[in-house]
Amino acid sequence: MSIQLYKMLHFTGLVLAFMGLAGVLALRWGKNEETGKRLLFALTHGLGMLLALISGFGLAAKLGYTSGLPFWVIGLVIVWILLGASFALVKRFSNLAALIIIWLGLLAIVGSWLALMKPFQD
After folding, report:
1. N or C: which end of the chain has fewer CB atoms below 10 A?
2. What are the Cα distances from residue 66, in Å, to 31, 60, 63, 88, 91?
3. 69-106: b (≥16 Cβ within 10 Å) or e
4. Over pLDDT 90: what percentage of the chain?
5. Closest alpha carbon to 99 in 109, 91, 108, 89
6. C-beta of residue 21 within 8 angstroms of C-beta of residue 87
7. Tens digit of each residue's pLDDT (9 = 90 or more) over 1-51
């Protein structure tokens, strides 16, 4: 697969992951506990996370990072873990929606910075 296809799949996965979180947050904040809608957003988040992980490591391999990962890739994996854990924050603390939105925005900024600037790259 080409690098462009990996990037497209990766960005699509990230959009799906954030969309799923936003959907669950909106349902919880609006006190709508309809199981079907909540399941749809949870599946969207999970599918996006899986797609981002697989395409991200595929992209790293395509770029030649096969033996040892640079700092910025490790940082992106940490951001990915925090994004996945954010699902629990959204479900448990939906009354703090403004803080959760700021948290998700910060994750997006840090992830973007790591991916674009590639700090500490040898």
Report:
1. C
2. 46, 7, 9, 32, 37
3. eeebbebbeebbebbbebbebbeeebeeeeebeebbee
4. 62
5. 89
6. yes
7. 899 999 999 999 999 999 999 999 888 877 777 778 888 999 999 999 999
Q: Which residue has the tokens 């479900």?
A: 91
The backbone region for 32, taken as left when phi is positive above 0, alpha when psi lies in -120 to 50, beta otherwise, is: beta
User: What six digits make up the tokens of 76?
Assistant: 């992106």
pTM of the prediction? 0.87
pLDDT band at 122 (very low <50, low <70, confident <90, very high): low
Let me know: does 45 contact 16? Beta carbons within 8 Å: yes
Q: How crowded is residue 61: how many other Cβ atoms within 10 Å of its Cβ?
A: 11
19 three-state secondary structure = helix
The C-alpha atoms of residue 51 and residue 61 are separated, in whole angstroms, by: 15
